[in-house]
Structures are given as C-alpha cells and as structure tokens.
Amino acid sequence: MKRNFTAVSCLLIILFTFSFAGAQEKYKLPPKEIVDIVTAPPTPRASLSPAGNYIMFTEYEAMPSIAYMSQPLLRIAGMRITPFNNSSQVTSFNTAFIIKKIKDSKEIKIKTPAGAKMGNAQWSNDEKYILFSIYTDKGVKLYMADAATGNIKPLYNGLLNMTMGGGYRWLKDSKTVIAFTVPENRGPAPKSDEAPQGPNVQETAGKASPAPTYQDLLQSAYDEKCFDYYTTSQIIKINVVTGEKKKLGKPAIYQSISFSPNGEYALVTKIKRPYSYTVTAGSFPKSVEMWDKNGEKIQSLFEIPIGEGIPLNGVQTSPRSITWRALEPAVLVWVEALDGGDPEKQVPFRDKIMTLAAPFKENAKEIMKLKNRFAGIEWLEEKGLAFVSESDWKRKWSTTFLVNFGKPAEPKVIFDLNTQDAYANPGSSVNKTNSAGENVVIYENGFIYLSGTGSSPEGDMPFLDKMNLNTLQKERLFRCKPNTYESFVDFAGDNRNSIVTRYESSTEVPNYFMVDLKSGARKALTEFKDPAPQLTSIKKELIKYKRDDGVELSGTLYLPVNYKKGDKLPLVLWAYPIEYGDAKTAGQVKGSQHRFTFYRGYSQLFYVTQGYALLDNAQMPIVGDPKTMNDTFIQQIVASAKAAIDKLDEMGIIDPKRVGVGGHSYGAFMTANLLAHCDLFAAGVARSGAYNRTLTPF
Fold first, then answer.
1. Average pLDDT for residues 208-227, to the nearest whole number?
2. What distance, in Å, lies between the first and last C-alpha atoms of the chain?
3. Residue 391, SS3 per DSSP
C-alpha cells in the first residue's frame, strides 16, 4: 500500500506541476517579420455610391483581438452567435469611413467615435446619407452619417438584432430605414443548468434519405431556447428626417422583409417550429406573409415545410426564390419544382416560374417552364424584360434566356455554355441602382454591358464588353493590358464614356482610377501604399505542367526574397480539389500571376518569409462523371501532386524529399488522403477539415 501511495503521490505532483506550468503559458508570437506584416494597417476597401458619384474607402482591423475572440460563442442551428452583442460572429470590424467625390476629389471623413468597431456602411439611394452600425460590449447601435458634412447621429436608442435579417437597410425613398431590433424587456437569457422537460426525440420517415452534414446544429431543448431568444427580433421603421419610429408586426424570428417597389406592401418570411437537429436554420419551417406598409398582416401566402429529406442536388417542392418584379408597383415572382425536387427523376420540365399581382387574391399565373433547374433571374432596366437562367448540374451547363414577362413569347437564348469553361465565360451583366432603388441590368437602346475576368492560357485579363441583345454581337470597350491586372469596377456616374477601374501588378498595390474609354486618359482616385514593402521583391511565377493522364495543370510559385538560382528549397504545396466533367476545362489556367500579393490572417504565403518555396492554388482536378469521379479521388490527387513535385524538381528549385502539403476544408480532406496514401510528402497541414466524405461516391 505504501508503495502504491507513493506512486500515486508522485503522479499527482507531476500533474500539479504540469497544470501550474501550463497556467503560466502565454501565446507565442511568430517571427518579427511576420508580426510586422500582420499588424500593418491593411489597404482600405473601396466601393462606389449608388449613382457612381462618390467612392467610399473603408478602413478595417488587420486582425481581431484575443480578447474579442475569447468572448463566449453560441454554435446553434448552423449559426455562430456572440451573445454579448446579439450578433453573428464578426472577425473583422471596420474602423473608419472616408468618402471622396469623384468629380472634384474632395474628401470627407465620417466623424465616427475614436476606436469604434463598425459594421458595413450603406448609402441611401439619393447619396445624401450613410447608414452604419457600431458594435459595443452591450450590443449593436444604429447610426447615420450626413455625406456632405461627415456628421453622425444615432437613429435608435435600443439595440439591433444582428443574427438574422441583415440588421438594417434603406427603403427606396432615402428617408426611411428598416431595422431588426432586440425586443424591449425580453428578459434574461436561458440558463443551461435547467433540468430537461423530457428526452430529445427525433423522428424518421422510414426511407433512405442521403443528406449533407452541417456544423453547429441544434442538439438540445436548451439550444432551441437560445435560438428563440437570440434570433427573435422586432422590426422597426425609422424616418431619418423626422425621427419618427414605428413598430411593424410583433416580435418573431424574421428571416427577411422586402417592400414592394411602390412601398405599399411588405413580403415577410418568418421561421417557426418545429426545429430540426439535422439541418440549419435556413431549412427550418417558414411562413411567408403579405403585410401592408404599416406592418398589418394582409394574408398568409405560403407555408414552407422543413427542409429535411430533400434529394442531393435537389430542391424543396414548395415555392422558392420568392421576390418582387422590378419596375412594377407590386408583383410577386417565384419558382416551383415540377419534378418533386428530385434531379434524378426524368421529366420534360423541372421548374416553372409563377407570378401574382396585388392585391394577391387571384390565382397565380405561369410565365414559363424550364427544362433544367432554375438558377436565377435578373431584371433589365426596361419594364418586363428579364434574364432567366437554368442549370444542369450533371453536365455543368448553364443557359440564360431573355424573357418578356409583360408579353409572353418564345424566350430568346442569350448564353448557352459550360459553367466550368472559364475561357468561354462571357462575363456578368453590369447593373445599376435605378431611381426607385432597384438593382437592374443596364439596358440602353438594345445594348447591355458585360464585365468578366477574361481567363486565358496566359492568365486572367479582365474586360468590359458592350453587347447588342438583338444581334448578340459584342464590342470590346476595355481590356487589361499584359503584365498587369486591371478590372472594371463601375461606370463613373451616368456617363458611359468613363469607368472606374482597380489597377494592380505583382509589384504595385491596388489603386483606383477613372479611365476615359475614348481617349484612354487616366485619373488616379487613390494613392494606397504597400502595407508590406519588405516583401515586394518576393518572386512569383505561373507554373504549368501535365499530369500522367495528359490533364494540363498549373499553380502559382512563390520564392523567398533572397532566393538564388540553384538553391533547392523545402516546398509547401497548397491546394483545394475541384470536380470537373472533362479534362479540357480542368486544365484551364485560373487567376493571374500579375496580381499584387497581400499577406493577411492565417495565409499559407507566410511560409515564403521563412525560406520555403510555395506552390499556391496547385490545381487538383477530379475529372469524370459526377457519380463515379470520386471512385478515383485518391489516384487523381496523387497524380496531380506528383506532377507538380516532378516539375519543380526538374526546374532545380526544390528538394523533393522536403515537401509538405496543406489545404483548408475539402483541401484538408485531400491533405489527409495524400499523407495516408502516398510517400510524396514529409508533413502536412490539414486546416479545418471536412472529413466526413466517406459516402461521396454514392
């Protein structure tokens, strides 16, 4: 007994010593060169006002503090909520807003409190005011700034609810704000030590139902109470001129509220019970209601059931994508499945588009049927016209039609293309905010504008095209010059002769310019400086190579500042697998070696500062039929990795015995499999892995 007691005593002393030592442990800092880069003020973000007359610069934190990140966090219903301020978790706060008038370059700084941590800023449609939020230890407050003076004022004495619904936004009149707020006198938060009222019971329909897996789901009755408590909000309408405030409806879990173009109606979506423990809040049951402008319920429109049991790559059978039709006073548009939401079912049409006008008493009308799954709708600047897109997930194919909702006729095909063929991508339509505050596609005299990345074998070269919808002929108005990267941001005001661009190169930090499309004259709008000039001379190069099955691959190679030709460096290969239907598109070059490199957060680029070579975005295509491609997942990722290592070894840059691999999420799954199934790597970093992929092939 004495010997046993002595042994136990020694063990307790050791444990106590380790516990004490562990309690004194502090966070370790990385090498100074990394600290200097990470803590340097980041280059401000820039965005244009609704009419393009102003450019706003948003300064933000380089990284969140340990004190903030250590605050309690609720992980429920697929959400991450910070209880102390009743918001979704935010990891980067804005610190300053500065606006510049494009015409005369006059700058005005919004007079926010020193040290304030702010949410996103929103322009009023008339460009007179800016709406924003300030995060405090007690909650989130709503403020407004005068764009002409920079002066600010609080709009609401209570707290915003920033968990769902977006928190706040302008209505089209530029003087009314809708805010989701914490209900007054809601009482204390639920306590976790409450005794359960009964067992956790989940029911099964008794049929096979493959489903994706999600993080942070509800797990108990306590979680349900927390979800109710933190997501329930009171909608308030605020007149920013008079200060008048009016409650709309009663406290509920509001997913969204959207006012009709004429402002007379509000489309409201509420989340309701019973909740699910297998899907996220977005798939909980919902009620879709029609209110008048004063918040009085007119009628219930739809009851959306719980989103469990939906086939993989399928959709719900109830109405979805419910929205207002642009340029009409109050007309609803939505989509319904014709195949039971099952993509495996053989049917002539998969979806239909329906419409219903105020006062919403008549039967809905069918506008058109789609052979493939509905993929989106964009309203053009001319009344009745819209782009309607459908997609075939098996073929990776997308078709976009021009549809006249006012005069139903045979839709005209505008685009019909492989969604993975980056070289053939025509770009996206250029939109504007019209006088009614609606986001619409610019449409002038039969023409639209298209902006794209311009992918090519030499890398991305962004462009702006003008396209005739009658002939489908295009005119190129702007394209990035070789050895640089310059992308279209927006038109400068209503003048289609001048555009705002974002210019950068591998050695020049991104800055904004106004470019005259006719003369080519350029005017600098910003003069941002390099936040980490000590790294500008890091070598960066696009590397192309082939897999043993002939698939062409590429990646961006980074070499340290002091690299000398002939040195053989340890290599970090960083990648993310992407699935493709054919080898041709799988091998296309994505991105550009001429973009400026920012070193931020937990970027893998920091390896380069420590003497490593880095092959970033190394292509890892998984090619084949969607149902069977993952049967050869391991063979394909091993072959891609070997091709990259062999290429860099052949170039004399790396030591093939000192190669590490890394990736995030699905890239972490790739990393784990490469470490387990081949001998190419000496180490690996699997970051935030998505490992539950065992049933992917099925």
1. 86
2. 59
3. strand
